[in-house]
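Hi Y.,

Following your request, here is the sequence exactly as I used it, all 384 residues.
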Amino acid sequence: MENKKQSIIPYGELGIIALESCRELGEKICTHIANMRLENANDEKIINEKAKTFFISIEEIRFSNGEGKVKISESVRGKDIYILADIGNYSCTYKMFGFTNHKGPDEHFQDIKRVVSAIGGRARKVTVIMPMLYEARQHKRKGRESLDCAIGLQELERLGVEEILTFDVHDPTIQNAIPLSSLVNIYPTYEILKTFLKTEKDVLVDKSKMIVISPDTGAMDRAVYYSSVLGLDVGLFYKRRDHTKVVHGKNPIVEHEYMGRPIENQNILIVDDMIASGESIFDIAVELKKRNAKNIYVSTTFALFTEGAEKFEKFHKEGIINKVYSTNLTYIPKEIKDREWFKEVDMSEFLARIVNQLNYDKSISSLLDATESIQKLLKKINNK
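Below is the corresponding structure, written out as C-alpha cells. Let me know if you'd prefer a different format.
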C-alpha cells in the first residue's frame, strides 16, 4: 500500500519557471503535462487552465546601467521547482545606457542564479533544465585556460540546485565537477529519428542505399549508434587541422579525409551535436557530392547558425543539402524555421514526460534509453 501511495503522490506541488529565453518551450511543456494529468482530455480550455497552475510567472528586471534582478510573483514554498533556461537565445534584449543589448550565455546563466536566489531555499527541490549546457565547449583545460563549465556547475550546486537536466553534452565527463549532485545528460535521438523517418518516408526502403556519416572523430560514437539502430553502414570524415594557427578560437581545417565504403548514389545522413557556422558541414557536403552522393540530410541537436542561414539556402538551391533536422531546444529564428530545407524537431512532449516522471519521484531510465523506442518505431514503419 505504501508503494502505491508513493506512485500517485507528487514529490511536491509542481512549479515550472521558464525564463524569457525559454518561455515558449516552457508553456508547451506545461500544456503537455496538463494533458497527461487530465488523462488525455480533449477540452483545450480545461487543459490550458490546468497548465496555468504549473506555470510560475516571474519578472526579469533590468536597470538602465545593465544590472538586473528577478522577482517571483507567487509563493514557491514546498514546491518541486523546474527552472528552464536557453543560454543560447540571442533574441532576448534589454536597454543599457540607451542602446539595445542582446543577452549572451553569461547573462542567461546569471539569470538562472537570480531565480535560485529569489527562491531562497523555500522550495522542496530545485531542478535546472538547461538544454544547452552553459560553457560546455569550455569543459577542459588546454594550457592556461579557464574551466568555465565546471565552475558554473559548482555555482549551481552551492546555491542549492539538486539536479541539472541537459542535452547532448560536448563531453559527458564534465559531471565529475559535481560528483555529489545529479547531472542528467539526455540525447534526443529518438525524437530526431522519428521526425526524420516520418518526413523522409522512403529513405530506408533499401538500406544498402544509405550511409550514416560522422563529420569528425568526436561525433563517431553518435554515428555508430545511429547506424546500429537503423542497420546502416557508417563512414567518417577526418579533419586535418593546422595546429600552428588559431582562428576564432580554433585551429583551421586544412582538409577533410573520408574513411568508409563508396558513397556513389547513396543517401547520406550526417549526424552531429551542433551546427555553429556550418562550415564543416558545407565542406563535407561538397566532398560527398564530389563522390556522387545522392541526397544529403543533416541531423543535429543544436542548430545555432552563428553566421546566418544564407549559405544553407544556397546549398539547398544547388541541390547539395536536402534538409537539416534540428531540435527546438535552443532558439531558432522563425525565418529559418519557415525555410523549405529546415525541419524542427519538437522536444516539448518528451521533456514534459521527463518532468512528470521526476515530479512523481519515478525513474526516467526508460525515457533516456532510446533503443527500444526506435526499434518499435522501425517495426511500425516496416509493417506499413
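The CA atoms of residues 18 and 24 lie 8 Å apart.

Thanks again,
Q.
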